[in-house]
Records
---
Amino acid sequence: MKKKILVRSLWGAPIGLTICTVVTIIFSLNYGNGEYYPASHVLIAACSSEIQAVILQTVLTMIYGAMWGGASVIWEMENWSLLKMTLSHLVICSIASFPIAYFLHWMPHNLLGAFSFFGLFFAIYAAIWLSKYRAIKKQIEQINSKLKENS
């Protein structure tokens, strides 16, 4: 189990970095007026230089990806209920997400910013969870249908 978590974390780290890089490119295309913005202006100001901001962002998004990658092992716990898996995964990912979002200035540093971040986080999490649940439920129904046909 520990080896599986480690391997998933090692895969998750570059995925987190890749997603962050793609987001900065999309942001720059939409708002950059031909310039590339590798990090938010607020993060750059807080770090005193662009390179320090990019280094911090790189390290933290790799940690973020690693946490999500490692946490994905939860979905393979066959002796756990779906509720226990969902709540465990949600708690771990929430605990990983908030400090990184805070330090990278993905949210305003006030109570409203924190509530807004968690509201958006939970809404996105729920939407992804529901879509995956429906897809898996449909697959199970198709398998059951084929089993009935064959018996």
---
Amino acid sequence: MINLSTIIPLLTFAFVTSSTPGPNNVMLMSSGMNFGFKLSIPHIVGVAIGFPIMILLVGLGLMQLFELVDNSFAVLKLLSVGYLVYLAWRIANTKTLSSGSTSTQPLTVMQAALFQWVNPKAWAMALTAISVYTPPSKPLYSVLLVAIAFVISGTFSTCLWTLMGQQLKRFLNDPLKLRAVNICLAILLVFTLLPMFAHSDWVN
């Protein structure tokens, strides 16, 4: 059982890991910059729903399923790399609504929620949180508490990164500057793949 002495470290861990740069935050900053906060709300909600569900499933034994199916985790890693590279390309080539094009749109709630399953940082966060902050028996209440901690911290951090992106656009009145920043964000998104290779559960 998670006691009071564990809750503060858990909330701190959740806040720090949720607030640092990663695929979700980079994409939300790009969305806020290109589409504004209001149109990015479905993306924020998708992360707020999708990641806690992921934590619940991992905490209740999803990793054992991967162990039963040979190479399933390796396939997931390949999908993660491919999809993140695709999203980076999409960000680099974003045409904003203000430019008169709607060919690129913010992620929907469902897209953002499903994205968590190919997000290497989300996997590293979920695996670490479950292994450190739940007992070996992994009772449901402990896993739920971990999920709630990430709902609170994650919602705050995703809103903050989206607002940062929206404010950044105020200084990018030149389409060329906006395109340059989008390319930089796309490159940063690719670099967020590094946790996949640094975290043992993603390497082995």
---
Amino acid sequence: MIAVGGAGAAQALDIASSAQGWANDTGAPQFFAYTNGAADGNNTFTGNEFGGRFNSWAAFDIPVGVYTTVQLELALNFYGDVIGDQIGVYDVSTAYAVFENGTTSDDSTYIDLGSGSNYGNFFALNGNIFTITLGGNALADVNSAAGGKFLIGFTNLTKNATPSGDLQDDGVYTNGSSVGSPVLRLDGAAAVPEPGAWALMILGFGAAGSMLRARRRAAATA
């Protein structure tokens, strides 16, 4: 029997976000912008400040592959009274280039980061590193984004329920000087064999076929 190797084993990957940022709903004069662009280690404030509301995002470079589960690992920094706040995790339909260049002139990116397909929710507790399993819609989007960028949006669902006239300066950070970048943990199906592995497999199948034909001829002449 000829053993044929080379087909990739199932993948298990931890992917740190490559860039992060925020978007606000007012174009607050303190910032003169609705977004702060994209950078690794960027400010990712999610909550209320300067009389406006802020959502944040993180971008991940997804390797080519087929994935079966997706988890999100976070550590939070707190600003103000946010213990117990519920944070929503959402899909992002805005193109990465818009966040990268900070080109928005309205609150459309802010709205996008806190609406659409919900991937899951979590509570801001103690600032410890924790992991949440994202829903099947997130998994489908990760697989669709394989080989490119995948973005996640964060919004403070608790603070969003506060009337605009009662906004307090408080929120959470999903990334900062003392907190590592958000991480996607992906489990995947077996990798597609490399071209060299395909060649070995074809040779192996050919050799196995030759052996079978030889046995049949031997049996016929016995």
